[in-house]
Amino acid sequence: MNATKKDDSRRRILNSAGSLLRERGISGTSVAEVMGGAGMTVGGFYAHFSSKEALVAETLRDALRQSRARLAAAAGRKSGAERVKAMSRAYLSRTHRDSPETGCPLPATAGEAARADAAVRAVLAGELDVMAAGLAQQLAEAGAPASRSEALALASTMVGGLTLARAVKGMPLSDEILKACRDHIERGLPG
Question: Can you give the pTM of this predicted structure?
Fold first, then answer.
């Protein structure tokens, strides 16, 4: 298999795994379903990944980077508090709640990641550090004290709020949770 074809196959596997992980979590995603979604046979899996854990680690990294890119695009050229508001509004939106297969993977995977192998937890920690650093930079630009601590609390509020809103989707409480989290975040922003 030439390098371009192998890269294309790997990307298809990651895309399939990303959709399934976002929607079903780690334990709800099987290698057979991932490979079927990629249009490939299970036998081809090991040409790309040594184990399901290796696939989960790389997929989680890829999906979190995609999620950050979508949030950055939603914020456009805004900076500081306005950027944080735009990102939290996009994250804590009905659209994001109702589209788990393309959204942030954390609501579906964070609880299971705690029991996953060290490589998955290391990827999660590294990506959370990147997320926190980006939010901390925006909070510092807005004049917030203790920006890293605030960034971690902000990320936790966003992920926790989205997780709960998805858990009660279809009920009025779901929209109420999204709004309460957005309002809470905006009240805590400087300026």
Answer: 0.92
Question: What was the pLDDT predicted at 20?
Answer: 96
CA angle in degrees (0–180, nearest 5) for 83-156-70: 40
What is the spatial distance between Cα 76 and Cα 71, in angstroms, rounded to a whole number?
9
Q: Is residue 125 part of a domain?
A: yes
Residue 109 CB contacts under 8 Å (≥ 6 apart), including other chains? 21, 22, 25, 26, 60
Domain count, the chain: 1
Cα separation values, 84 from 34, 73, 78, Å = 34, 12, 9
Domain range enclosing 116: 51-187
Contacts for 138 with CB less than 8 Å, ≥ 6 apart: 79, 80, 81, 83, 84
From the list 51, 26, 43, the residue with the least C-alpha distance to 124 is: 26
Residue 82's domain is classified under what CATH number? 1.10.357.10
pLDDT digits (tens, 9 = 90+) for 44-68: 999 999 999 999 999 999 999 999 9
Tell how far CA 177 is from the center of its chain.
19
Quote the radius of gyration of the chain (alpha carbons, Å). Answer: 18
